[in-house]
Design goal:
327 residues; alpha/beta; Rossmann fold; six-stranded parallel beta sheet
Length: 327
């Protein structure tokens, strides 16, 4: 028998075995008709569709092989000429996280980060912690398998236990993220990603981590019949009576001082802070944890970065945020 004939026989035999096994596996669909293969959607498509709903521009990634379902969804997106996020690969996990953080600091639009299971997630933890400290919203995901290889009908050796973190990788991520959880079912995967994106943008903003098992991404997925549009995060503002109380405290103080960290996030807040300082002749200090130009550094009322001796001497200190002033 020729090599081509043996290959064709092996392909037919494999197709027969997979059809008879009746398991929801991508390989089975690969041997069926072209239309069925084209219409077959899995968890990778669920993740990408959730990213589209969240209006994510880029997927920053230092990936492992577990993200192949997402890669297939991205390939389908390109072939069908659909709008959606662009995939950018980097050689280190922290770099991927920092690229997402930098993009969001400029555009105010949260992005997605896909990292490798286990150690890949821990490699990116420093960047995630920085995003938490600077209140940068993002959705961070890694894929740590939980059952891969245990299905007796699937001809693959056990793989899940080789990289399983004790208690789940989300336990290691919790101290450096706003919120960290595992997606426990393929049927909740889509809404879990949507909810993570929404939660990341609620005040205080920050990175949300999801542990998505590879077997959830390989599972078939049916898009919701009426997928909801994700609304923008609500803009928070203090109550009018609180603003009046703070204004009275500042007006009556003999030696007030302003400590600012994130006023520069909004150009209008930058100008308003300068106007307030000029109006009441209040000195301004940049806090130690700031990633913005919050106040003109050549202004006569500017006292520098982290000079908290001025706060100790002040009768009343105010901390400046984009939309609130807290005494």
């Amino acid at each position: 028998m020729s090599m081509r004939a043996r290959h064709a026989l092996a392909k037919r035999t494999a197709a027969s075995r997979l059809r008879s096994a009746q398991i929801p596996c991508r390989m089975r669909h690969a041997f069926t008709s072209e239309d069925r293969m084209k219409n077959y959607l899995d968890g990778g498509e669920a993740i990408l569709e959730a990213f589209r709903k969240l209006k994510i521009d880029y997927i920053m990634s230092s990936p492992g092989s577990e993200w192949s379902p997402v890669w297939e969804a991205l390939a389908r997106q390109k072939l069908e000429n659909r709008a959606g996020p662009t995939f950018i690969e980097s050689w280190h996990e922290t770099l991927a996280v920092n690229m997402a953080a930098g993009y969001t600091l400029i555009t105010e639009r949260p992005q997605a980060v896909l990292l490798h299971a286990g150690v890949g997630m821990l490699q990116g933890s420093m960047g995630i912690h920085g995003a938490l400290q600077n209140e940068v919203p993002m959705v961070v995901m890694s894929g740590e398998s939980q059952t891969l290889g245990e299905d007796p009908e699937l001809d693959i050796e056990q793989q899940w236990y080789g990289g399983l973190s004790v208690g789940g990788i989300e336990r290691f991520v919790e101290p450096v993220a706003k919120w960290a959880r595992a997606v426990t079912s393929p049927y909740t995967l889509y809404e879990s990603v949507i909810r993570a994106g929404e939660m990341a943008q609620r005040l205080p903003k920050g990175p949300i981590y999801l542990n998505v098992a590879l077997e959830h991404m390989l599972h078939d997925w049916t898009p919701p019949a009426s997928a909801r549009e994700v609304p923008p995060a609500p803009r928070m503002q203090p109550r009018q009576q609180d603003v009046e109380k703070v204004a009275e405290l500042v007006r009556n103080a003999k030696s007030p001082v302003i400590v600012t960290e994130t006023a520069g996030r909004d150009p209008k807040a930058f100008s308003a802070l300068q106007e307030l300082a000029d109006l009441l002749a209040i000195p301004v200090i940049n806090g130690r944890a700031n990633s913005y130009a919050n106040f003109p550094t050549d202004h006569p009322l500017y006292l520098g970065v982290g000079r908290y001796k001025a706060v100790d001497d002040a009768e009343r200190a105010a901390r400046s945020w984009p939309s609130t002033t807290i005494p």
